[in-house]
Amino acid sequence: MDTQASECATALRDKMLIGSEWREAQSGATIPVFDPATGKAIACVPDGSAADVDHAVETAWRAFRSPAWCAMPPAARERLLLRLADLLEANGEALALLETRNNGKLLAYSRMFEVGAGAQWLRYMAGWATKISGSTLDLSLPLPPGRRASAFTRRVPVGVVGAIIPWNFPLLMAIWKIAPALACGNAVVLKPAEETPLTALRLGELALEAGFPPGVLNVVTGRGESAGAALVAHPKVSKIAFTGSTEVGRLIGSVCGRNLKPVSLELGGKSPVIVLDDCDPAIAAQGAAEAIFFNHGQVCTAGSRLYVHQGIYDAVLSRLAEIADGMVVGSGLAAQTHMGPLVSQRHLQRVRGLIDSGIEDGAERLCGAAAVPDEGYFVRPTVFANPDRRPMTLLTEEVFGPVLVAMPFTDLADVVAQANNSVYGLGASVWTNRLDAAMNLSASLEAGTVWVNTHNMVDPNLPFGGFKDSGIGREHGAAAIDSYTTAKAVCLTYAQ
Ligand code: NAP
Ligand code: MG
After folding, report:
1. Would residue 316 count as lying in a domain?
2. Which residue of 52, 176, 245 sits with most ligand 1 atoms within 8 Å of its CB, as the best mutation to test the pocket?
3. ∠480-483-485 over CA atoms, to 5°?
4. Which residues form the active site (predicted)?
5. 354 and 376: one domain?
6. Which residue has the CA at smallest separation from atom 43 of ligand 1?
7. Please, which residues have CB within 8 angstroms of residue 477's CB and are 6 or more apart in sequence?
8. Which ligand is nearest to the CA of 31?
9. Rounded to the nearest 5 degrees, what angle is found at the Cα of 173, between the Cα atoms of 47 and 472?
């Protein structure tokens, strides 16, 4: 075994975490986990069912009510989250290798955006644990003479949170959910994506090592339609926090609606990138490439529709095609690689099918046709030009891969209308140094986040979420604290 492989094996956990126990599924069934760079199985995890979810939720419920957790002072919760951040970093290299083996992403991305950003989010949310507050209120109750009234509110944890996450940033998405949930004093049952469960399991182990009481964080592996659905429907789960596709989000939202269960949904996107004619074409092309090709396009805010002012359209597109052609596609573990494999065989087939649809719809493919490694789930970065702006599936459907459609524009009002002509509204970026255009476009674009001269930038202090079919609710910052607590009003009367 080489050094990397042995470091990776040290971090490998392949059972579910319920309380402090590592368990098989009650049915004994397992799910294979693959290395997308080779297509070979690297582990098997339990295929959890409703019975396993019930066990995990009951365990979480007991932990939520236990004095060890519910009477813990906020400063102690803060310390546990800070300790978990330290442990994440101390085990960072093994976690990053494990993530790259399981998800395929570049090792540099695993280090920076899974481990590095994960620790940053844990520390940010640790700080919130001691800053949760309610308010005192004056009342106008019709009280008899001699009596007065007063009231205060507290933000209290909701109870057991069911967290369901996708495979594109496995460790970071887990932390985006568990960090605010635990900072607020909830207990969590986390269901990672079936493709990428390995770092979430290790995160559960590190949480125990950090000193979180057993049962406060449980990790149940399994499939969405069984384990995920059971978590959503469980009566003792008080809130669902979901990141994933709009299709599944809609389904989960409808079940939560029927059960009157709060739900936050971070869903899909088809984010526009708008380049004005005052931009340096080389800088704009680099920005547009990073907006779509970062993390192999497997980013909910990926800039998959590019609108470039006619005056610099040819210059931007030719540079963009050069950048895409120059990208080395290969294993995320290799230092020279710019783009790793897609996450799974199934996703590869879907992305290939969508690329074929672009060709059938008559767009010009500027790059992306070159060969890829035989084994593993690779596609090349692909740019289509659609100067006539013909209707095409690639303009409406989320690809979740490195596939871009570019179009020219001349009129700002027209490009805003084009950009907003989508069921999605997650992210958008505007590239210009003109203050008036930046301000007016950011006001007009229907998106939860509008970036100016950058794209895909997220920060734990910045609310994140979608307009329209891109979701409900906001993660991060103060919004996350509201989302993982509920208000309790206490009303009292007293003698004057
Ligand atoms: P997905 O199929 O919607 O799955 C997401 C999670 O939901 C997985 O854990 C999945 O389990 C589970 N699930 C599936 N069906 C379920 C059901 N009936 N009940 C409960 N849970 C269920 O999404 P994906 O393909 O893994 O991820 C890609 C999508 O996520 C993209 O559309 C992307 O835009 C979106 N995304 C959004 C954000 C954001 O913040 N807005 C961030 C990242 C990704 P299985 O793994 O077993 O299917
Ligand atoms: Mg899935």
Report:
1. yes
2. 245
3. 110
4. 266
5. yes
6. 300
7. 460, 461, 462, 463
8. 1
9. 105
Q: Rounded to 10 degrees, what is the CA torsion of 97, 103, 105, 108?
A: -30
Note whether residue 494 is domain-resident: no
Average pLDDT of the segment spanning 259-264: 98
Q: Same structural domain for residues 133 and 94?
A: yes
Q: 47 in ligand 1 pocket by Cβ < 6 Å?
A: no
pTM for the full model?
Answer: 0.97
Residue 119 and residue 46 share a domain: yes
Q: Rounded CA gap, 463 and 449, in Å?
A: 8
Percent of the chain with pLDDT over 90: 95
Q: Is the CB of 350 under 6 A from ligand 1?
A: no
Tell me how far the alpha carbon of residue 168 lies from the centroid of ligand 1, in angstroms.
9
Residue 388 lies inside a defined structural domain of this protein = yes
Within this chain, do residues 364 and 481 fall inside the same structural domain, yes or no? no
| 239 in the same domain as 130 | yes
Looking at residue 4, what is its pLDDT? 67
pLDDT tens track for 298-349: 999 999 999 999 999 999 999 999 999 999 999 999 999 999 999 999 999 9
What pLDDT score was predicted for residue 370?
Answer: 85
Number of domains in the chain: 2
Task: Say if CB 493 and CB 148 are below 8 A apart.
Answer: yes
- Cα of 347 vs centre of ligand 2, distance in Å, is 9
Hey, which residues does 308 pair with through a beta bridge?
A: 275, 408
Cβ of 244 closer than 6 Å to ligand 1, yes or no, is yes
Q: What confidence tens digit (pLDDT) does each residue in 445-479 have? A: 999 999 999 999 999 999 999 999 999 999 999 99
239-253 residue pLDDT tens = 999 999 999 999 999
Mean pLDDT of 209-230: 98
Q: How far is the CA of 195 from the centre of ligand 2 (A)?
A: 7
Residue 58 is among the residues annotated as catalytic for this protein: no
What range does the domain containing 143 cover?
A: 16-267+470-489
Of the candidate ranges 228-237, 352-361, 387-396, 407-416, the one whose mean pLDDT is the lowest: 387-396
73 and 161 assigned to the same domain: yes
My answer on whether 282 and 343 are in the same domain is yes
246 with 297, same domain? Answer: no
Measured by CA distance, the residue closest to atom 13 of ligand 1 is: 224
